[in-house]
Design goal:
Blueprint lengths: L3 E6 L2 E6 L9 H16 L5 E6 L22 H10 L4 E5 L2 E3 L1 H8 L2 E4 L4 E3 L13 H9 L1 H9 L4 E2 H6 L5 E2 L5 H12 L14 H5 L2 H9 L1 H4 L4 H14 L2 H16 L2 H15 L18 E4 L3 H12 L4 E4 L3 H20 L5 H9 L1 E4 L10 E4 L5 H14 L5 E4 L6 H5 L8 E6 L8 E5 L6 H13 L3 E5 L7 H17 L4 H11 L5 H8 L15 H7 L12 E3 L5 E3 L1 H13 L9 H21 L6 H11 L9 H8 L1 H10 L6 H9 L6
Parallel strand pairs: 2-3, 3-4, 4-6, 5-7, 6-9, 10-11, 10-13, 11-12, 13-14, 14-15, 16-17
Antiparallel strand pairs: 1-2, 7-8, 15-16, 18-19
Helix pairs in contact: 1-2, 2-3, 3-4, 4-5, 4-11, 5-11, 11-12, 13-26, 14-15, 15-16, 20-25, 21-25, 25-28, 27-28, 28-29
The structure holds (2S,3S)-3-hydroxy-2-methylbutanoyl-COA.
Amino acid sequence: MPVVTTERHDDILVIISDNPPVNALRQAVREGLVAGIDEAMSDDSVQAVVIRCDGRTFFAGADITEFGKAMKGPSLLEAIDRMEASEKPVVAAIHGTALGGGCEVALACHYRVAVPSAKLGLPEVKLGLIPGAAGTQRLPRLAGAEAALPMVAIGNPISAQKAQSIGLVDKIVGEDSLAADAIAFAREQIGKPVPRASEGTANEDGVKNPAIFDEFRQKMARKIRGFDAPNAGIEAVKAAGELSYQEGVARERELFLKLMAGTQSAAMRHYFFAERAAGKIDGIDPATPLIPISKVGVIGAGTMGGGIAMNFLSAGVPVTIVEMKREALDRGTGVMRKNYENTARRGRMTMEQAQTAMSLLTPSLSYDDLADCDLVIEAVFEDMGVKKEVFGKLDSIVKKGAILASNTSYLDVNEIASATKRPEYVLGMHFFSPANIMKLLELVRGEKTADDVLLTVMKLSKKIGKIAAVSGVCPGFIGNRMLSPRQQQANAMIMEGANYWEVDDVLLEFGFPMGPFQMSDLAGIDIGWHRDPDKIETMRDALCAAGRWGQKVGKGFYDYDEARQRTPSDEVKALIAEWAAKEGKEQREISKDEIHERLLYPMVNEGAMILEEGMAQRASDIDVVWINGYGWPLYTGGPMFWADTIGLDAIVAGLEKHGLPVAEMLSKKAAAGETFNG
Ligand code: T1G
């Protein structure tokens, strides 16, 4: 059965693509579109054309799996230019997500109709690219440069309604009558001159007000820092106002090819598939029946417990949240309500949605109210004794077959499971703070965790909007385990003479949101401090005793001004020198290159050990963890992909140069000229 077929409806020819799962525009689809248009053009009885897709969505873009391979068949641009060149009206019938090349197909059609739930976008920038089939030239001419800029340079999709408001969609049709409504709409256009986006003049707005490009670039500076594609996208949209259409297409192509050949796009395409691979669990049949989860319990209404609960409430899953004391329970539920109200105030949800979410919450002071939950997640104090006591209690109260999960960030999930008679129903669900915001969720698989339990929680993770990766049981799982050697080296280097602000700057320049000492100041240096200013046994004690508790008091490792701008502190420099002398550390200049290698290479080494111990399913899962949980710059692909691009031999040489350990897998792969990501 060909992936593209045609259907006659009297004088209308409907071209239909059926290429699951997302109608990606692979070679056969492009060929089918060309054949369909040629059939329409060569048949005088055809007066108009509709292009639509079967399945869950209109074309969701070029087929990313074809990238990097020799192009076969007609290019997408060739295929869609034939549509626009038609003298007979061509109408795109859009449902699902018309993304990337799919949106470009729609732009090359003369008209676009969409169902209310449809979305349209040009997310190429999220793959380190820009649109490569004239999207950066047609969209500004149709909708204006100002409307095109965020779509091209940031890449978020817009609703059908928003698309209609900027002229990208001509008509919103019935949710369940797209095909018929599109045919009727096409028939109405017969005999009219066909409008072509490439001939549009809406891009004049960028010509009349060229300041919009730099203004947009400055407004997005933080978001696009370090990424190449967004600036290329801005340049391409700008070109749409400065060059003829054909020159603009040529300029787009030049920018596109440069990005396609670059490491950033390879890294971001790697991440695209890595994120989806992380949701797959090797060795478990994806058709394994799932355990129905219709009610969730959360123990602890503090910052973590409240955030965890919000994930489920926002996904429409009722939650019973339990605290020991009324005051803590009321405080926790109050914070949740306030968070929802703030989100609604920012327009990220309606007040009604916020109220609905809160209506699904049942606060309680008794574990007994958890008895009928299908999943209970504890977010209590990070102490093994406390956790085991909680799980023992839960085991005796919660119904048979319910899943018991720990939010522990470090502790041994097997030992926690041993406190119950149902270890096969126990696993770790390590959320990252703030739990209702951070996308990453580490699912910690105990040695006895049953397959259906793990698969159920993996599917549930996607439902609550998380990106989950499976970890084995080891200290720190995947993320924190790799953070540990980086922190060790950071602390060691400042004792050896490295400037602590340069340690932070190296990670900032690499693309992290901040470095370790900035992180300490933000989190609070005094967390876990014994509060006795006379008891000074560590440098941390000394900092706290000096009132340097972090950003919240205006000084920690850095001094902060009202705008929270940081300045290195002479007092801290002196403290470090004093403690280094106490430890008998010889002082020397430490270059930024050495700092870079000693911070990042040991992380790769730890990742190799995680893989050789089977604590992660695949190297790309480690990339997913670090990009989503710790701010590793997406445009490098994550620690393991980045190591591949540096060359594992260079990583080994660097580790050896600094006298740091080299894992066996890393050493073997380097010697064999292999990579982690294959
Ligand atoms: N190419 C190839 N495979 C794709 C794909 C694509 N464009 N999009 C999705 N898949 C696969 C995905 O790997 C997964 O496979 C399955 O489909 C379901 O995806 C010329 C150059 C459409 C919103 O960037 O955003 O066009 O794991 O799990 O959550 O200018 O997929 O099942 O084996 O994500 O419902 C631009 C990327 C390309 C859109 C659906 N387009 N896709 O989300 O399902 S570049 C994109 C998505 C381009 C042009 C340029 C999402 C989705 P498997 P899924 P979902």
